[in-house]
Specification:
mainly alpha, Fic-like fold, Arc Repressor Mutant, subunit A, 2 domains, 3-stranded antiparallel beta sheet, two-stranded antiparallel ribbon, 15 helices, globular
Length: about 375
């Protein structure tokens, strides 16, 4: 890391280590900010879009309707920022079948993101957002995947760094604080999480995300945990009643700018540029989530209307509802859900296939997985509009 690249002393401290490399220790939050009218207007726009999304979430006919697909879209895109290639369909196939498609070996890694998010959402209802909580979520994220040898659920005990492939500590783009200073920074980070604040929530979240990435407390999984924390904090602070807003699609779309602006805060103290970028993402993704929610709710109403008008079995209506919570299923899972025999479950699945609601995804005669293609299409679309 080149210390000449770091020019804003008020934003942090350069540390020359005994091993003769440089590292950066960010100052404790909050930063000293002067908000321009442009930024105030951006904040107002982001708050407005987020409030509209929260209103939609409160009117969901079932609190679990749509949440599963949204979490899985986030898992795919947040993991993709870190280099995975698994698609939403790959993830659904893995979760439904329990087996990894050789063409998508990183599906398990993406599935762990889902587990980590779901664990965090439940855990936050009874436990404060703390360093212990963050370690627990990290343990779920990194269990039984690449990087598992890098101490899941434990803060690092050695130096890490960020930069191009095969770079060293000496030529890294960014070196987070050494372990002793990292522990001090984490203590201050946790104190800020719990401290009362008059800073607007979205600006706090932008600062928290930067700070976590700058400290980089794990040997692997820092980016994914940092992005998980955004949604978890929105729910914890009551800004969203259900986890429908995720920024990874925005960060992935502007990946180079995302990394550049985070680094620029450390190097040059450019907080306003980073916060502006973050607020733009909140506004864009809130609007995107609104459109996807509306399209999924309309599809749900259409599907239910088809069966209700035909006086179909309540079992098929229950199966339709399940697909909007989780758009893939096997006959065994359907039998368990509907509390019927395997044969009866298969017959109900076949009725949904004939209506185009489900399609078989494996091409096999046994252990087949059925996916709801229209639901997947809405979730996977690059842009909702």
């Amino acid at each position: 890391m080149n210390p000449a690249d770091f020019t804003a002393e008020k934003n942090g401290q350069l540390i020359k280590t005994q091993r003769d490399y440089w590292a950066f220790l960010p100052n404790p939050l909050p930063p000293q900010l002067t908000l321009s009218w442009d930024l105030v207007n951006q904040l107002s726009e982001a708050d407005r879009a987020l409030s509209e999304l929260a209103g939609t979430a409160r009117t969901l006919p079932n609190p679990h309707l749509l949440i599963g697909p949204f979490i899985r879209r986030e898992a795919v895109l947040s993991s993709r920022i870190e280099g995975t290639q698994a698609s939403l369909s790959d993830l659904l196939f893995f979760e439904a079948s329990g087996s990894v498609d050789p063409k998508a070996p990183d599906a398990r890694e993406v599935a762990n993101y889902v587990k980590a998010m779901e664990y965090g959402l439940v855990r936050l209802k009874k436990f404060p957002l703390s360093l212990r909580f963050i370690r627990e979520v990290h343990e779920h994220l990194m269990h039984d995947v690449r990087g598992e040898h890098l101490t899941p659920g434990e803060f690092r005990r050695s130096q890490n760094w960020i930069g191009p492939d095969r770079c060293t500590l000496m030529d890294a783009t960014y070196v987070p604080p050494p372990v002793e200073e990292m522990e001090q920074a984490l203590g201050q980070f946790e104190a800020y999480l719990h401290a009362p604040s008059t800073v607007p929530l979205l600006i706090r979240l932008a600062a928290i995300h930067y700070q976590f990435e700058a400290i980089h407390p794990f040997l692997d999984g820092n980016g994914r945990i940092g992005r998980l924390l955004i949604t978890l904090l929105l729910c914890k602070e009551g800004a969203l009643p259900e986890p429908l807003l995720y920024l990874s699609a925005y960060f992935e779309r502007y990946r180079n700018e995302y990394y550049r602006l985070l680094l620029a805060v450390s190097q040059s103290g450019k907080w306003i540029d980073w916060i502006s970028f973050f607020l733009r993402g909140v506004a864009e993704q809130s609007r995107d989530a609104l459109v996807r929610s509306d399209r999924l709710l309309q599809l749900w109403k259409n599907y239910r209307g088809e069966f209700q008008s035909a006086r179909s079995s309540a079992l098929q209506l229950r199966l339709v509802d399940q697909l909007f919570a989780y758009p893939a299923i096997t006959a065994n899972q359907a039998a368990k859900l509907l509390k019927v025999t395997h044969r009866s479950a298969q017959l109900n699945i076949e009725k949904l296939i004939r209506k185009g609601i489900l399609k078989e995804a494996t091409g096999k005669q046994r252990n087949r997985v059925f996916i709801a293609p229209q639901i997947v299409k809405i979730i996977e679309a690059t842009h909702a509009s």
